């Protein structure tokens, strides 16, 4: 009896391991018996955010263009985010896959789940969602302290930008993703939230698609005060200056044609706050050119 009581006391003293339960951005509950030790990332922004959450060491596979931080370049590839290699994913024996709701094929996601691999789907629509995903990734990967610290730093920088620019006079802004086809961002896209944070107004916020196609005539009709472009890399795209032929457009008359590297604003990662700071500075420059 004495030994039994000692055994019971010892069991009571041991911590009870609870399942890891997290709700993803689509409202689906993801449940793991233990924190994930082998994670496959299905989008570049997911990879970057996992590293920021302290979970880089757990990533066993990722997709093309996962190039930040430098360590991400050395992670084995499982195809591209829009064309996943399901056999390569299965061979890695992951205990979790983290995907992109609007970027990955739904058919691929279902096939991954059919393999018995839990899938968390990310779909940030507001800047704050980046911080929440940091925290959720930390829970899933067993790195909650690092993730919470990263999320707190992100929120602090956002709050500073909001305090500085959020109440400034509105600036009508056209954000151009690409030239042919001419594409912008709709109201549900996180870049619209960045524009709003900076005291701007997305001239196409009433469009529902995340990346709607528009016409040159539509842009001329809304007459933006600022045109911001991204492009494909670190260099300012040549087609941004094609707008100069439309001399009656306010953005052209005031030389408010600005560039932000796409990795800083089109990837839903902690670096989004750096892109936001650049956008806020550009809109403030545009405000200073009023009346000139």
Task: Tell me the Rg in angstroms.
Answer: 22 Å
Number of domains: 2
- The rough form would be described as elongated
Proportion of beta-strand residues: 5-15%
Low-confidence segments, given as residue ranges, are 2-16
Terminus-to-terminus distance? 91 Å
**Mean pLDDT metric:** 92
CATH topology annotation of the largest domain: Rossmann fold
**Please, how many helices?**
11
Number of strands: 12
Assign the CATH superfamily of the largest domain. Nitrogenase molybdenum iron protein domain
CATH C-level name of the largest domain = Alpha Beta
Strand order of the largest sheet: 4-3-7-8
What does this structure look like?
The structure is a single chain. This protein has 292 residues and is an alpha/beta fold. It folds into 2 domains: 15-151, Rossmann fold (3-Layer(aba) Sandwich); 166-288, Nitrogenase molybdenum iron protein domain (Rossmann fold, 3-Layer(aba) Sandwich). It contains 11 helices and 12 strands. Strands 4-3-7-8 form a 4-stranded parallel sheet, sandwiched between helices. Strand 11, helix 9 (250-253) and strand 12 (257-259) form a beta-alpha-beta unit. Helix 6 runs parallel beside helix 11. The longest helix has 22 residues, at 144-165. The chain is elongated, with a radius of gyration of 22 Å. Mean pLDDT is 92; it is low at 2-16.
């Amino acid at each position: 009896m004495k030994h039994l009581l000692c055994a019971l006391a010892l069991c009571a003293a041991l911590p009870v391991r609870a399942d890891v339960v997290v709700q993803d951005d689509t409202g689906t509950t993801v449940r793991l018996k233990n924190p994930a030790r082998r994670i496959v990332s299905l989008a570049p922004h997911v990879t970057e955010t996992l590293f920021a959450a302290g979970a880089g060491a757990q990533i066993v596979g990722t997709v093309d263009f996962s190039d930040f931080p430098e360590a991400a370049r050395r992670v084995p590839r499982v195809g591209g985010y829009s064309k996943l290699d399901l056999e390569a994913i299965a061979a890695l024996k992951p205990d979790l896959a983290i995907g992109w709701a609007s970027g990955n094929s739904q058919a691929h996601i279902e096939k991954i789940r059919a393999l018995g691999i839990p899938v968390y789907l990310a779909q940030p629509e507001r800047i704050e969602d980046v911080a929440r995903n940091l925290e959720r990734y930390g829970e899933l990967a067993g790195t909650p302290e690092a993730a919470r610290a990263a999320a707190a730093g992100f929120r602090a920088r956002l709050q500073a930008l909001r305090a500085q620019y959020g109440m400034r006079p509105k600036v009508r802004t056209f954000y151009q993703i690409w030239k042919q086809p001419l594409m912008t961002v709709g109201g549900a896209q996180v870049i619209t939230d960045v524009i709003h944070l900076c005291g701007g107004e997305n001239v196409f916020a009433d469009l529902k698609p995340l990346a709607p196609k528009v016409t040159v005539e539509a842009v001329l009709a809304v007459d933006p005060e600022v045109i911001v472009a991204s492009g494909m890399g670190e260099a300012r795209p040549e087609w941004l200056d094609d707008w100069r032929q439309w001399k009656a457009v306010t953005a052209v008359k005031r030389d408010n044609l600005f560039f932000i590297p796409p990795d800083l604003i089109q990837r839903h990662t902690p670096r989004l706050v750096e892109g936001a700071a650049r956008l806020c500075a550009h809109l403030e420059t545009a405000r200073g050119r009023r009346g000139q």
